[in-house]
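Q: What does the predicted 3D structure of MAPEG family look like?
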Amino acid sequence: MKLTAWATLASVLMYIWVFAKVGKARGVHKVPAPLTDGPVEFLIALRVQANTVEQLIIFLPLLWLCCIFMSDQIAAILGAIWVVGRILYALGYYQAPDKRSLGFLISSVAAIGLLISAVTGLIIH
């Protein structure tokens, strides 16, 4: 479980980075809370953060189900791939919305791998 805990920590640190980017964008583009509308650059940062939250809700349970019922190593590897995918998604999106696809694909494949592993582990056990 220790490896999966590291993957969990990495996902939280990645989210903190994304969250901080929204805060920075608020300051740079003068969009005070609780406003959620502003220049495109701010909206992109906000969209990356919102999409990351949406994905974390799916990722974290699958990560731990995979760890518990399949393998700590498999969960950690897929978890690390997911985090890398989310970072690539964010970096691509910050450049231009059409550059987010590769990161989204990588993180989606990792999440599907976690889902398949979790279901398989539950069936086996």
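A (community wiki): The structure tokens above were generated from the sequence. The radius of gyration is 16 Å. The chain has four helices and no strands.
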